[in-house]
Design a protein that fits this description.
It holds the Pfam family DUF6481. This is DUF6481 family protein. With about 110 residues, this protein is mainly alpha-helical. About 80% of the residues lie in helices and about 0% in strands. The longest helix is centred in the middle third of the chain and has 50 residues.
Length: about 110
């Protein structure tokens, strides 16, 4: 039995040329695309792109509306919080702080 023979440069080059010619022959044998079929495919793709764009636009509008609603609710909550609890004067805050301090000291005794 003969030993394995490493293919030389010419062998590899000829194999590459043959493979390239075979691939080109396969492409040339392919039937041409019918213009009507191509136009239909392009129309389907365009319709799909338009539908996706409309869906993205609807999602963007819904997202903006949700953000606006959330901002409005935050404003209303802030206004309700501000109006529900009147601001304490300096003297009232000092009296509350002193009361907490006295209660803490009383618990320690």
């Amino acid at each position: 039995m003969a030993a394995y023979k490493e293919p030389g440069l010419n062998d590899r080059r000829n194999a590459a040329i043959a493979a390239r010619e075979k691939a080109l022959a396969k492409l040339k044998a392919k039937p041409p695309v019918d213009p009507a079929v191509e136009a239909e495919r392009i129309a389907r793709e365009k319709a799909r792109e338009e539908a996706a764009a409309a869906k993205r636009e609807a999602a963007r509008i819904a997202r903006e509306e949700a953000q606006a609603l959330k901002a409005q609710q935050a404003e209303e909550a802030a206004a309700a919080k501000a109006s529900a609890k009147p601001a304490l004067s300096e003297a009232e805050r000092k009296a509350l702080r002193d009361a907490r301090y006295a209660a803490r000291k009383a618990r320690k005794k």
